[in-house]
Amino acid sequence: MSSQLHILFVEDNPDDVELILRLLRQGDFEVSHERVETAAEMRAALANQAWDLIICDYSLPTFNAPQALDVMYSSDIDLPFIIVSGTIGEETAVSALKAGANDFIVKGGLARLIPAIEREVKEAEVRRERRQREREMEAIASISIALRTAQTLDEILAHVLDKSLQLLTGESGGIWLYNPANHEMRLEFQRNFTSDSPMIVKQGLGLVKLAVEKKETIVSRNLRTDSRIAPEVRENLPEDLGGICALLQATDQAVGVMLITFKPPRELTGGELRVLNALTEIGGSTIHRVRLHEQTVEQLDRLDALRTIDLAIISSFDLHVSINVVLEKVIELLKIDAASMLLFKPGLGKLEYSAGLGFRTRAIESSSLHIGEGMSGQVAYQRRTLVLENLLKSPEHARDQMVRDENFVSYAGVPLIAKGEVKGVLEVFNRSTFRPTAEWLNFFETLASQAAIAIDNVLLFENLQKINFELALAYDQTLEGWSRALDLRDKETEGHTQRVTQMTLKLAQSLGIHDNELLQIQRGALLHDIGKMGIPDNILLKPGPLTDEEWVVMKKHPTYAYEMLSSINYLHEALTIPYCHHEKWDGTGYPRGLQEKQIPLAARIFAVVDVWDALTNDRPYRPAWKKQDVIKYIQEQAGKHFDSEITSIFLQEFART
After folding, report:
1. pLDDT at site 464
2. DSSP 8-state class, residue 376
3. 8 Å CB contact between 258 and 160
4. For residue 265, is the peptide bond before it cis, meaning its omega torsion is within 30 degrees of 0?
5. Which of 255, 294, 338, 402 is the 20 to 30 A CA-CA neighbour of 606?
6. DSSP H or E run through 511
7. Matching CATH topology for 319-454 and 490-655?
8. Other CB atoms within 10 Å distance of the CB of residue 287
9. Which class does domain 150-292 fall in?
10. Alpha carbons 156 and 512: distance in angstroms, whole number
C-alpha cells in the first residue's frame, strides 16, 4: 500500500523537484507538493496547509536553508527539515544541522533520501505524540489545580465546562447534575446556550439521559440527523451542529452529564477523548465530594493510581543508572580497560564529563571540551567514530597528561546522536594496543545508539518529571484539605489535625525518624480519624456520654480506617496511625488489644500527642484542662496508656513550652 506524503519544496529549480518526485514515486510514495522560492511564499504555504516535511535547497537566489529554518521556527511549526543540495563545505553542512536541519543530502547521492524521509517522518510523529501527551498532562494538572482552589459548586462547574470547551473548541455547553432521590437531571450550569435553543436547555437533546442510562460517552457528528434524539427536539436544532455527552461520575454513581456542542466536520482525536475523560472523572469526583462529603475513599484511589504512574515514569528515566549500565556493558563486552561518557551541554557549548569506569585517577572527571577540541571534541565535530590504535603516535590533544598518567595506548570514540543532534561522546581507552574489527566497531556504535536514545528520552521527559513532582505535592495538600473536612464533621477543635500532625512530626524527629518514615507519619496523622467517616452522626456528634452499645460502634473507626486505606499502596505505610493510635501500652486499647512494642512506633508516638491536644483544648462537652493537670495525667499514664520512653521525651519537648 502506497504511503502518502505532503511535501513543501523550497527550491528554485523545478527539474530538481521533479527528479525527487520521480524517486519518491518509485519508492511507492504518493506525493502532493508545492514549490516555493522566497520567504514570503514559504510563510504563506506554512500558514495555509499542513505538511509532512520540508525539502530545501541550501542556496536559492534570494533565500537559503538557514533562513528557511528561521521561517519554519517563527511559524511555530515542527516539521522534518531535510536539505537536498549540491556539494558544499563540511563546516556549512554541520552548521545547518546544528541550526535544526534533520539531515543533509547531496543531490548526487539521493539514494539516502527515502530512508531519511522515512526516519524523520516517523520521528516527527513520535514528537507530535509526545507533545500531545504533554498537553494532556498540562490540561489535567490545570483542572486539578483549579478544582483544588474552587470554593463553591458553581466554581467547580465553571472550571470543568470552560476547560472542556477550550479543549474541544466547542460552541456551547452545559452540565446536568443527577439527583438520585428523584432520578432527575437538572441543568445547573451552561455557556453560550441562547434563547432560541430552549429544547437544548430543557431536554439536553435526549443524549443526556442516554449517557446516564448507558454509563458511557455519547458522540453525535450531527445532532439534527441523530436518530437517538427525539424528532420534536431535532427539528429545533441548527443543521450544522455536532455534540458529545460525557458522563460525570464518581465510582459507579452517576453525578451528572456534560454536553459540548461543536461545528462539524469535527472528529475528536484519541488524545482529546483521553483528556475529556480525565476531566470528567476529576470533575465528577470533585462535584460529588462537594455535594456529599463522603467520597474520600474514591479520591484516595485516584491518588494511588496517579502515584503509581508517577513512580513508573521516574523509575524508567534515571540517566545516571542508564549511563552506568552502558559503561559496564562496554567494558565487559568490548574487553577494554576504561570507558567514559561526555555529554554535550548546549548552554555552554561544551562536552562535559558525566560518568566513567576503569580509570586509576580522577583526571578524566575534569574533562570539559569545546566541539572540535581534543579527541572527543573531534568525534562530536565530525559526527563519526574515531579510532587511534597508538596514542603515542597521534597528534597532541587536550588530555595528554591524563593519557600518560593512566598509561593508555589505544582510544576509540563514537558520537551519541539522536534525531540528528549530538548528545555527547562515548569513548573507550585501552592500556595495550588493539585493532578493532568491523564487528567490534558495529557493536560499539550500537551501544552508543542505545545510550543516545536513553539520554534523549531523559531530556524529553524532564518537563513531565517536574509536573509529576508538583502533582505529588498537590496530593499531600489534598490530604490536608480532607483532614480539615474531617475535623469539621467531627466538630473537633479548630486546627486539631494540623496541630497533632506538626507535634507528632517534631516528636518523631526527636526520636531519630527521618525521610520517608517521617512522610508516612505525616500522612497517617492527617488521616488518623478517617475511619470516623463510617460512624453514624447520632453517635459521632452526640453531646453527652456514649452508651456501652454506642462505644462498641465508636471503637470500630480504626478498623474502618484500615478497610478504607489498606488496598491503597500509596498510603499503605501510613496505615499504622489510623489503625493503631487507640492501642495502649498495657494491652487495654482497641481495636486489637496490642501491647508494648507490638504497637507500631508511629502509633505510640501519635497516641501521646493526640491525648495532649485533646486535653489542652476546649471540646463541646468540656473545657480544656489546666496544663499542669495534663502533664500529671500524661506522667501517670506512662507505662499504662503510653510508652514510657516516648512519654519522657514528649514531656521534655512540649511540657516546657
Report:
1. 65
2. H
3. yes
4. yes
5. 294
6. none
7. no
8. 25
9. alpha beta
10. 43
Provide the CA 526 distance to its chain's centre, in angstroms. Answer: 25
In Å, how far are 463, 582, 614, 618, 633 from 625, measured between CA atoms? Answer: 52, 21, 9, 8, 10
- Residue found by looking up cell 450550569 in the block: 189
Q: Check residue 395 and give its pLDDT.
A: 61
Helix axes 39-48, 65-74, angle to 10 degrees: 40
**∠ at Cα 544 (543, 545), nearest 5°?**
135
Number of C-beta neighbours around residue 103 at 10 A: 20
Q: Both ends of the chain: CA-CA distance in Å?
A: 80
For 516, phi and psi rounded to 5 degrees? -65, -35
Q: Is 201 exposed, middle or buried (0-12, 13-18, 19+ CB in 10 A)?
A: middle
| Cell digits of residue 270 | 484519541
Phi, psi (5° rounding) for residue 211?
-65, -40
What distance lies between CA 535 and its chain's CA centroid?
Answer: 37
Torsion over CA of 459, 461, 467 and 471, rounded to 10 degrees? -130
pLDDT given for residue 129 in this prediction: 77
In the chain, the amino acid numbered 312 is: A
At 251, list the grid cell.
465510582
Q: Is 46 within 8 Å of 21 (Cβ atoms)?
A: no
> Using CA atoms, how far apart are residues 589 and 586, in angstroms rounded to an integer?
8
Q: What is the mean pLDDT of each run of 10 residues along the chain (657 residues)?
A: 83 90 87 91 90 90 90 87 82 83 84 87 83 71 70 79 79 81 74 57 61 77 77 74 80 80 75 76 74 43 33 53 79 88 89 93 89 89 90 64 86 91 93 82 82 77 66 68 65 74 92 88 88 86 84 91 84 90 94 94 94 86 87 93 93 78
The answer to whether 599 and 580 have CB atoms below 8 angstroms apart is yes
Joined grid coordinates for residue 288 = 460529588
Q: What superfamily does domain 490-655 belong to in CATH?
A: Hypothetical protein af1432 (1.10.3210.10)
Q: How far apart are CA 525 and CA 535, in angstroms?
A: 19
In angstroms, rounded to a whole number, what is the distance separating the alpha carbons of residues 416 and 151? 51
pLDDT at 538: 87
Alpha-carbon gap, residue 654 to 612, rounded angstroms? 10
CATH assignment of 319-454?
3.30.450.40
Cell 489510623 maps to which residue? 578
Q: Which residues pair with 638 in a beta bridge?
A: 642
Residue 492, Cα to own-chain centre: how many angstroms?
A: 37
In the beta sheet, which residues pair with residue 179?
184
Helix spans in 362-428 (H)? 374-382, 400-406
State the pLDDT at residue 589.
94
Q: Where are the domains of the chain?
A: 3-130, 150-292, 319-454, 490-655
Residue in this structure with the C-alpha cell 441548527, named with its chain if needed: 238
pLDDT the model gives residue 2: 63
Which residue in 621, 650, 622, 617 sits closest to 634, CA to CA? 650
Instruction: State pTM to two decimals.
Output: 0.36
Amino acid at 345: K
Residue from 186, 375, 161, 332 nearest 261 by CA = 161
User: In degrees rounded to 5, what are phi and psi of residue 3?
Assistant: -95, 140
Span 3-130: which CATH code? 3.40.50.2300
- pLDDT given for residue 193 in this prediction: 74
Whole-number pLDDT of residue 472 = 64
Euclidean distance between CA atoms 647 and 642, whole angstroms: 7
> What is the model's pLDDT at position 416?
93
